[in-house]
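Lab notebook, bench 4. We co-purified these components, and the gel suggests they stay together. Before we commit to crystallization screens, I want a quick structural picture of the whole thing.
Request: model the full complex, all chains together.
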Amino acid sequence: MNRINVFSSQVIGPTKDADAIAGSTKIKTVHEDAWGYKDTQFKMNPSDGCVSLSGDRYLYSGKRFPNLYPFIQKYGVDKDIATPAKNIEAKFFDSSKSTINESFLESLRGAVPNLRLSVDPKERVMASHGHTVQEIWALRFGKFSRIVDAVIYPESHEEVEKIVRLADQFGVAVLPYGGGTTVSHSLLCNPNEKRMILAIAVSRMNSVLTVNRETMCVRVQAGCVGSHLEKALGSVGLTLGHEPDSWEFSTVGGWIATRASGMKKNIYGNIEDLLVDVKVVTPIGTLTRGTEGIPRMSAGPDILQMVLGSEGSFGVITEAVLKVRPAPEAKTFGSLVFPSFEDGLRFMREVARRRIQPASIRLMDNTQFLLGSSLKPEQSIFQNFLDSVIRFYVLRVKKFDPENICAVTMSFEGTKSDVAKHESMLNSLATSQFNGLVGGAGNGIRGYFLTFVIAYLRDFGLQHQFIAESFETSVPWDKVDIVIRETKAQVLADCKAAGIAHEPMISARVTQTYDSGAAVYFYLGMSWKGLNDPVATYSQIEDRARECVMKHGGSISHHHGVGKIRKQFMDQAVGSVGKAMIKGLKTTVDPRNIFSNGNLV
Amino acid sequence: MNRINVFSSQVIGPTKDADAIAGSTKIKTVHEDAWGYKDTQFKMNPSDGCVSLSGDRYLYSGKRFPNLYPFIQKYGVDKDIATPAKNIEAKFFDSSKSTINESFLESLRGAVPNLRLSVDPKERVMASHGHTVQEIWALRFGKFSRIVDAVIYPESHEEVEKIVRLADQFGVAVLPYGGGTTVSHSLLCNPNEKRMILAIAVSRMNSVLTVNRETMCVRVQAGCVGSHLEKALGSVGLTLGHEPDSWEFSTVGGWIATRASGMKKNIYGNIEDLLVDVKVVTPIGTLTRGTEGIPRMSAGPDILQMVLGSEGSFGVITEAVLKVRPAPEAKTFGSLVFPSFEDGLRFMREVARRRIQPASIRLMDNTQFLLGSSLKPEQSIFQNFLDSVIRFYVLRVKKFDPENICAVTMSFEGTKSDVAKHESMLNSLATSQFNGLVGGAGNGIRGYFLTFVIAYLRDFGLQHQFIAESFETSVPWDKVDIVIRETKAQVLADCKAAGIAHEPMISARVTQTYDSGAAVYFYLGMSWKGLNDPVATYSQIEDRARECVMKHGGSISHHHGVGKIRKQFMDQAVGSVGKAMIKGLKTTVDPRNIFSNGNLV
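Here is the predicted assembly.
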């Protein structure tokens, strides 16, 4: 058994450790009013509209994208219209009134002497929101009606046990805080909460406690951040393989609480497939199984599955045992181009039917494909020439319609020979039976890259009167097509009705495939020119899109969760008895409702 | 969408349909005091001890097994000692007192006019027990302290809704009854239940409602019996692939309620992997999701996972949506022989690590191997000669020790070429790195066959003063070895202390493999010669074995469930908070505790 600590040479964000959050350090590393690292930002040259990406973290950081502006211009992004954030400092201090339970704090100091506690307004705001566009909007242009009153940074499961016991005893509300990347409003505080609200940030609980190579499991503290954990495991030849889009910031505890899904789930599984054991501190005690590391068990309703998706309503997740795999010898990328979305979708269905998915396989629709293409960085004349040859071949020789063309991006992991064979098999299936063309590794890598910068792009839009967001669902195979078609049509109609000045951008991609269905991501972006309350209009359109998704057979969420933003759809999602059961669990473990975030039901 | 009905040309048992249970038909088909079909029974020739198997259902039905008696004789089975069942008719009528809630029955008749209801003592006894050795013992030599008061046979989800609503209203206790194959005492009635107890048998709810080839899912009524369902699906080119040992009798609803595991889970998954949707009638309403067939969802704690393992305590499972696969082109068997259990176990670990398991792969220890060998039917002189050549090769040339030799049996499903490649890869791994020898298809088939007759063998023992039973667990990989070793040692010591007259038979097999661990089955058999209360002694030894299993890191159960027989171990299994959560669910859906079977917690 090795004991290793997660270590990263660079400070990378609010979840890295508590010091990174406190005071000025944070400001140097992450945006206060947008997604991601402060050093990374899309910027537009006001003279020619050429967009560039700052920083050096990503594949295309430091590059210029001359084709992006022409693409987004038709949706109403205007280089001459800037919509900067209002003064954020003022907001922080405006929110600084706080409810402090002094006798609780006194007992807390006695019980956990070295506990770091902060009432700094910036830290409190940081712990009181996630990253939906509504929340970023509030940061940039609005305000929060209630934020947490203090933030604490415990360092162990045992400290959390003491804290929760005291909070329950003194009537203090508790909000567990992981990476803050939630997109379900799960961190927004109840404006009517009269009690002190205490955020328990798990950022100091970021150790890998044990590595067991016989069972291929690791025990980790719940505050481990995805990319850090992966790096630590990589240093001993292992991989977790869990890569949600947020993995640079999101934590193990957050994944569990949200039912996270990773891009490479076809090899590594979603979080429910990775989770072997868990410790959750609830007001009635710590939930944990008595026999450790059991692979599969018949002992009544699965308690792990009751914690998965609990969205901070039951307790604080402090530790987890997760499966790991040997780090793969090779990681490669590939792509395929199809003349139509229908062809691509039939291909995806067949791949799932045969269960021959690579680590990741995703189908982009035409709009996504064009967006992806517009994100090609400035390149040499020779490369431009090569591209035009390829374009000639695809459009003229193969007669693909540029308005219908779509793409599949793939990532492979395994031995060198296996990944090569796998890619060749998929390429041959696509070309022989589904009218596909092999698109090469470059497009595959760009598809992957797009994932990590899509949130930066969204916030770039906010600087130019353009509001954008993604929302996702899961759908049985026989309804994927209709859910996408009807939802796009609904959004277009609603945008028109709402008086959106320009054509809105609505696109879809199939991001995960299962035996019986698939996950679908929508991207919606629109100019808010002339709108009275842009974020309200956007929210209304998204809600109606969700109604449409569910009406045609899609789910409430594939992996974003419910929180408060999708709570109104829970009746339909799990029925009244399902809701009662979730409420029953909540009442059982938290009879005084100290985990009062109001998520789920 | 096709609508097909499960149909079988032969009456095969109590779950086939209600008429098969009523009156004389049942007596013709299933044993009243033992496992399985009445036409199938091991019998010993009193003169030479040669054992034969009656009937024609199984591979070796109608065959004689000259090597079995010599093998079991050393454990104390004596051809001259017979221990026949006591008069079972008398017991049935002894148990015939019943508590009838007349006003409930009157309302019930009004609400569900054509409902078949029986107060026949035989049907009532049948619905009040499962198939542990303790229950078979009670049938043969003892009695039940409480049985259900009536049995009803609804035909649809809607009928069950009416029935449960009335039962809740009139204070009638309800016991859902599937195939009756439970081995956790989950069907035993609470002796202190003063209310009328009504068994709801789902045997008439055995239709396949819809088949969807695009999503590859079927919607079935919960009373569908495994082998019937498989046959129905096979007729349209599909397979469910779920084959628990009980599948000739057990039902879809029972699988869900028990968290069943099937032999071929490596391809098809366990029941939790197969289940896509469910309908459960609880006293507060029907639990069901509003969007059908969702492949994966983040909507809080998973309600399907709260029903899985609920053991009849929450409601009546009436319908389910299950995944299906295309029926495989080829089904083949293989086997490997290893010089020691340790070698075999290392091989199993490596196969799981590489995730190259065939449909089924199981490792038998030396005792199981010898038992399997002793079950070879009488054969030709030529075949005997061939066997002795093979024996010579294995024991003399390869120098395998007959007291240590063990075997792996495998079943493969897929295309002809894939299964051949797969077997060849596993054979080559075993022989090149784990000292294995290829054992051929015959042994593989015999291993498979043993599964289905092991319960018949147990009940054969009961006729000859020999009490036997299996129990199972799941264990992390690093503890499989110690759990098996320590449990065997504990059982041997406890048998000695209990004064067992002959050497007991205690053996183990690894029946399933997972990423992080394996499932282990133990078989324990012992002569009860001279024992005062054989079944009590046996139960005590099994309980202590379970303690030992859990002390060394094994679970409360891999797939048999908890019921009442393992309830005492739930504290250790899921902890006090876990138990509270399960109780919380129970209280929520069944506030008046009409599903009063007392299982789980």
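Chain B has three domains: 8-44+93-201, 208-326, 330-551. Worth comparing against the SEC data before the next meeting. Chain B touches chain A through 87 residues (CB under 8 Å).
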